[in-house]
């Protein structure tokens, strides 16, 4: 019998930890606001967020705080194929469509924008900025494409239990620059090769 994929086992464990944390601390999303660094509150920055799937850290309270501080928001639109995500302008109350994987996305007519900061959902992350998602690679491809054309800050959103000391990483995995949890902001000091 073949041994199970280590990433699959990690996903299972981290998803269970995320469920437990979400039930124990239903105010976790509100706590993100308290740990957002003041130096990242820059007027007119485009912040790409996401509409959470069940169990994911909800960026809603953080999005409202960032808009109040002068940021402009964008949400991802999934590609038709296996490419990277595109980001489209979003304001509270804009119409959304439920598309692939049940994700709510802006209408395709919404203006496409390039984000300065990307808030990234995750299953797990580590102290070196490695991220474990669901294995489809959308955020890896997206961050790689964005970084080829300029600076972009990738910040994972998570419950503290989703952050481990180390995670397995592949050469194509794009690292996070920071992880914001309901307990603290973890800046990643460098992007080792």
What does this structure look like?
- The protein has 193 residues and is an alpha/beta fold.
- It has a single domain, classed as NagB/RpiA/CoA transferase-like (Rossmann fold, 3-Layer(aba) Sandwich).
- It is built from four helices and twelve strands, in the order ααβαβββββββαββββ.
- The mean pLDDT is 92.
* CATH C-level name: Alpha Beta
Give the overall shape, derived from the CA principal axes. globular
Class computed from helices, strands and strand pairing: alpha/beta
Q: What portion of residues is helical?
A: 10-25%
Poorly predicted regions: none
The domain tally reads 1
CATH superfamily: NagB/RpiA/CoA transferase-like
With strands numbered from the N-terminus, the spatial order across the biggest sheet is 3-2-1-6-9-11-12
Distance N to C terminus = 35 Å
Label the CATH architecture: 3-Layer(aba) Sandwich
User: pLDDT average, as an integer?
Assistant: 92
Q: Please trace the helix and strand order, writing H or E for each element.
A: HHEHEEEEEEEHEEEE
| Share in β-strands | 15-25%
Could you describe the largest sheet, including whether it forms a barrel?
Answer: 7 strands, mixed
Query: Which fold does the CATH topology refer to?
Result: Rossmann fold
């Amino acid at each position: 019998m073949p041994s199970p994929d280590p990433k699959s086992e990690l996903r299972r464990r981290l998803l269970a930890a995320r469920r437990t944390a979400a039930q124990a601390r239903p105010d976790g999303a509100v706590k993100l606001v308290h740990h957002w660094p003041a130096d990242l509150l820059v007027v007119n920055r485009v912040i790409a967020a996401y509409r959470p799937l069940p169990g994911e850290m909800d960026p809603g309270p953080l999005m409202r705080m960032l808009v109040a501080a002068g940021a402009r928001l964008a949400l991802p639109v999934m590609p038709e194929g296996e490419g990277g995500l595109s980001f489209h302008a979003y304001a509270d109350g804009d119409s959304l469509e439920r598309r692939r994987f049940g994700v709510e996305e802006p209408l395709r007519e919404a203006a496409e924008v390039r984000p300065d900061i990307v808030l990234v959902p995750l299953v797990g992350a580590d102290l070196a900025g490695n991220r474990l998602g669901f294995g489809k690679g959308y955020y890896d491809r997206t961050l790689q494409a964005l970084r080829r054309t300029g600076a972009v800050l990738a910040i994972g959103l998570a419950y503290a239990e989703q952050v481990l000391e180390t995670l397995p990483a592949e050469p194509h995995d794009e690292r996070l620059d920071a992880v914001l949890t309901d307990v603290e902001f973890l800046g990643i000091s460098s992007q080792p090769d």
